[in-house]
Write a structure and sequence with these properties.
The complex is a heterodimer of chains A (452) and B (429).
Chain A lengths: L38 H9 L6 E5 L2 H4 L20 E2 L4 H6 L2 H15 L4 E5 L1 H5 L4 H9 L6 E4 L8 H15 L13 E5 L8 H11 L2 E6 L5 H5 L6 E4 L6 H11 L3 E3 L5 H15 L2 H29 L3 E6 L3 H11 L3 E7 L4 H10 L5 E2 L5 H11 L3 E4 L1 H9 L4 E3 L10 H16 L3 H6 L10
Parallel strand pairs in A: 1-2, 1-3, 3-4, 5-6, 5-7, 7-8, 9-10, 9-12, 10-11, 12-13
Helix pairs in contact in A: 1-7, 4-6, 7-10, 8-17, 11-12, 12-17, 13-14
Chain B lengths: L12 E2 L6 H9 L5 E6 L2 H15 L5 E3 L4 H6 L2 H15 L3 E6 L1 H5 L4 H11 L8 E4 L8 H16 L10 E5 L6 H13 L3 E4 L25 H6 L5 E5 L4 H11 L2 E5 L5 H15 L5 H21 L3 E6 L1 H13 L3 E7 L14 E3 L2 H7 L5 E4 L4 H7 L3 E3 L17 H18 L1
Parallel strand pairs in B: 2-3, 2-4, 4-5, 6-7, 6-8, 8-9, 10-11, 10-13, 11-12, 13-14
Helix pairs in contact in B: 1-7, 4-6, 7-10, 12-16, 14-15
GO molecular function, one term (chain A): nitrogenase activity
Family (chain A): Belongs to the NifD/NifK/NifE/NifN family.
Keywords (chain A): Nitrogen fixation
Chain lengths: 452, 429
């Protein structure tokens, strides 16, 4: 499916002149080392956690080969989504076209792996040689009983964020609303932009269960294709991460009338605020009361559990470098542990997320302008923080600065969402900040010489 | 009689074991001190490579991008490349810039050579900055091929000038499958023979995972520019792995230096013949230290011969690595159930009787039943797990075992280590 870029509302989010603001509609400069990603990556991130579907990348090996099964989006059941499937275009395909090969590939994958649906992703090379993946998918559809869905977001289309939006359009136009749920649950909701990284979702579900709220679908985390088809019957959309899917919730509101709220499940404050907002919006008095009680109990319990960490962490200073909802939600979460954010930066957030981060931070805190490795190193040398909170790609560079580090992006192995996740988060921060190895790393040896 | 085995032919690759050639080129570039690697492609191309190499080596990977967007799909990326090189030079002050292309730029046919000379005309201050260009179209080959091409470009571009011969100096071209610790072991072995080694690329001091005093956004450690320029002074050259033969042959062609291609350095026979050759070149007897290591290896083989004999092993790796490990296993009496290579190999290089095929990890899945051991990268966990077959991690990426870049599997000592790893993986499962 082709998505008209003008429908993605990119322009209206572009006027930010602030220093360090994410340059959504500005081109990254060649050679500056911005270290962002591409539209194809962004499109796949959103759809990949549909766990019972097959995801075929129509491109040369660079697009799938270097990156399959590398995200921490977890499944409680099917593992098919983790399989790396690609047409692995070779020289002959580039010369003669790869459409026929793709059609065959789709049919073979359908036969071999019995998926519930097949997503087919275009890439730079396949787009450039003029392969029409819509046609290839239609051809395959004649032989395949499950839906075959084309996702047209080749890498050169822009950065990750734009790819997210394309996937939102695909979901809206081709999947959501295609099946009616068996029952009409009064408190049915969807999460939008919750990818179940490291099992984050499973830290939130206990609260929903306790309150009698039904999660109809999570788009997309631990998701099943058939559940997403029914997502239009939710009473409420909760936009959890990635403002890039705002278009999706707005259009779902127009089409099926369900309202949406924004929220985050990182940290005690944001978890409670989001639960409260869900209950308010669903509007049931009994639910609202139960929610208040639940929040009170859980907050008390969680505060007790993290108190010993908070006492030791209070007054520590952090540098925060991430994307999406975490840009701002992590500022609050760190504050709950008594940690102050010295500087914050973002590569992949929307301007809105960025502004929210800025508003929450201490006015003296710095905004990271140069998001390259060079800029990062200069900042750390200058600020000497007690902790760096960032994504996996910064991890090993951070270690070189001999500074405690916490990975909060897609490569991590621990869930940080919900009340339970807050405890895990506090434990993890405490472990890295007070690890005895940092002192060893900073000692000079032999004594009096330079550190080795 | 050679009979490469038949595997299921499909129109897709399932759980590919290939990585992109540009990723291989990046590894080679990481073995050159003060280098800034620049990928001519869209931003995802370089991000995927950085993530993949970071999770394998546990190191930051200084790889930059020309950040191509939609307009370049129409107008070409020539101008972006010019700007990218200049910007990288200004911002990061590298000693060398190593450029590689991508599927995107090779498809629209950007001429990297003319972009570079146009840049140099505009920016006369950068006229002398060494820039190495490697063409790595994503749709030709895998990691090994990209690594080979980048090494070849480094040599072609930087080792041109004739220099006087230096006695006891040899040039080494390690294969893409050598770990940083393998390269270090190789250098130490040469030192024992009193030989000075110029190693291209040398990842033993850059990707070895050391705590730098001053982290930087360019490569730290590795062979220096001056050392690369001294390569023509070598009295002999060795390349390791069949794919690296062209690099050694290029040096021979350029400077008339005698070149030996060593297929593998894992396995007693292979190491024997390499040490005899070193002894000949250096005029020194094989050092007693190495003979002691040989004697220990022999004792290990005796002690464990029964646990090794007739074990069925399924291996999926890049071809140089595949030949190295399967020949060692065959030597100790194990059976190769299947040898799956990431990319094709000329038929003359496929050993007699080796059940060789080009395939992915889905092929491994179809063929692994009944194996005592799988040797492949971490992604083969999707095969080994459900089949409950012990899985020894090798190749790239290995992200779920500690210390892989620090592992030595070459020389007598390294062969012994490999045998131990095989045995321990099978017993602790």
């Amino acid at each position: 499916m082709f998505v008209n870029l003008s429908k993605l509302h990119l322009k209206e989010e572009c006027p930010l002149e602030d220093k360090g603001a994410p340059k959504l509609c500005m081109k990254a400069l060649p050679g500056e080392g911005a270290e962002r990603s591409c539209a194809f990556d962004g499109a796949r991130v959103v759809l990949m956690p549909i766990t019972d579907a097959a995801h075929i990348v129509h491109g040369p090996i660079a697009c799938a080969g270097n990156s399959w099964d590398n995200r921490g989006a977890r499944s409680s059941g099917p593992q098919l989504y983790r399989r790396g499937l690609t047409t692995d275009l070779n020289e002959m395909d580039v010369v003669y076209g790869g459409e026929k090969k793709l059609t065959q590939a789709i049919i073979e994958v359908a036969y071999t792996h019995q998926p519930k649906a097949i997503f087919v992703y275009a890439t730079c090379v396949s787009a450039l040689i003029g392969d029409d993946i819509d046609v290839a998918c239609q051809e395959a559809q004649k032989e395949v009983s499950v839906p075959v869905i084309a996702v047209n977001a080749p890498g050169f289309m822009g950065d990750k964020n734009i790819g997210n939006r394309v996937s939102g359009e695909v979901l809206l136009q081709q999947i959501i609303g295609k099946e009616e749920p068996e029952e009409d649950h009064p408190f049915a909701i969807n999460f939008i932009g919750e990818y179940n990284i490291a099992g984050d979702l499973w830290g939130i579900l206990p609260s929903l269960d306790a309150l009698g709220i039904k999660l109809l679908s999570s788009i997309s985390g631990d998701a099943r294709f058939d559940d997403i088809k029914k997502a239009h019957r939710a009473k409420l959309n909760v936009l959890v991460c990635s403002k890039s899917l705002t278009n999706l919730v707005k259009k779902m509101e127009d089409k099926w009338g369900m309202p949406y709220i924004e929220g985050s499940f990182y940290g005690i404050h944001d978890t409670s605020a989001t639960l409260r907002a869900i209950a308010q919006k669903l509007g049931d008095q009994d639910l609202i009361e139960r929610t208040e009680q639940h929040i009170q109990e859980q907050e008390e319990k969680t505060r007790q559990l993290i108190d010993r960490y908070k006492q030791k962490l209070a007054g520590k200073q952090a540098v925060l470098f991430t994307g999406g909802v975490k840009t701002w939600s992590m500022v609050t979460t760190l504050k709950e542990l008594g940690i102050e954010v010295l500087a914050g930066g973002t590569q992949n957030s929307t301007p809105e997320d960025f502004l929210r981060m800025k508003a929450l931070m201490n006015p003296e805190a710095d905004i990271i302008e140069d998001t390259s490795a060079a800029g990062f190193l200069t900042l750390i040398a200058e600020k000497k923080p007690d902790l760096i909170v960032a994504g996996g790609k910064t991890k090993y560079l951070a270690h070189k600065t001999r500074t405690p580090f916490l990975d909060i992006n897609h490569g991590r192995s621990l869930p940080y969402a919900g009340y339970r996740g807050m405890v895990t988060f506090a434990e993890a921060v405490h472990r890295t900040v007070f690890s005895p190895v940092w002192e060893k790393l900073r000692q000079s040896f032999p004594p009096g010489g330079e550190a080795r | 009689m050679k009979a490469p085995i038949k595997i299921k032919q499909r129109h897709y690759s399932g759980n590919p074991q290939k990585n992109s050639p540009a990723l291989g080129a990046t590894i080679a570039y990481m073995g050159v001190d003060g280098l800034l690697a620049l990928l001519h492609g869209s931003q995802g191309c370089s991000t995927f490579i950085r993530l993949q190499l970071s999770r394998h080596f546990k190191e930051p990977i200084p790889l930059n991008s020309t950040a191509l967007l939609e307009d370049t799909a129409i107008f070409g990326g020539w101008d972006h490349l010019k700007k990218g090189i200049a910007k990288g030079a200004d911002k990061f002050k590298p000693r060398i810039i190593g450029v590689m292309s991508s599927g995107l730029t090779e498809t629209f046919g950007d001429d990297m050579v003319s972009a570079l000379s146009a840049m140099r005309q505009e920016r006369t201050d950068l006229a002398k900055l060494p820039v190495v260009l490697t063409r790595t179209a994503d749709y030709v080959g895998s990691l090994q091929e990209g690594y080979q091409l980048a090494t070849l470009s480094l040599l072609n571009t930087l080792s041109v000038q004739k220099v006087p011969e230096e006695a006891q100096t040899v040039a080494l071209f390690p294969g893409a499958h050598f770990s940083p610790a393998d390269v270090e072991e190789l250098k130490e072995i040469l030192a024992l023979f009193g030989l000075k080694a110029l190693v291209l690329p040398d990842i033993s001091t850059s990707l070895d995972g050391h705590s730098e005093l001053e982290p930087a956004p360019v490569v730290q450690g590795g062979i220096t520019l001056e050392e690369i320029q001294l390569i023509p002074s070598a009295v002999a050259a060795f390349s390791f792995g069949k794919s690296m033969n062209v690099v050694g042959e290029k040096l021979k062609e350029m400077h008339g230096i005698e070149h030996f291609n060593i297929t593998t350095l894992t396995g007693i026979e292979a190491v024997d013949s390499f040490y005899l050759k070193l002894s000949q070149i250096s005029g020194k007897a094989i050092p007693t230290q190495l003979l002691r290591q040989r004697s220990r290896l022999l004792d290990t083989l005796a002690d464990y011969h029964d646990q090794l004999a007739e074990k069925r092993v399924s291996v999926a790796l890049e071809s140089d690595h595949l030949l190295a490990l399967t020949s060692c296993l065959t030597e100790v009496g194990s059976h190769i159930n299947i040898a799956l290579s990431a990319t094709p190999l000329p038929e003359k290089h496929i050993p007699e009787g080796l059940p060789f095929a080009v395939g992915d990890l889905e092929h491994l899945e179809e063929r692994a039943a009944g194996s005592h051991l799988i040797i492949a990268n971490s992604n083969a966990r999707q095969v080994a797990g459900p089949w409950k077959i012990p899985h020894l991690r090798a190749g790239l990426p290995v992200f779920d075992r500690a210390g892989v870049p620090q592992k030595v599997w070459i020389g007598y000592r390294g062969t012994q280590r490999f045998i131990f790893d095989v045995l321990n993986t099978m017993t602790t499962h």
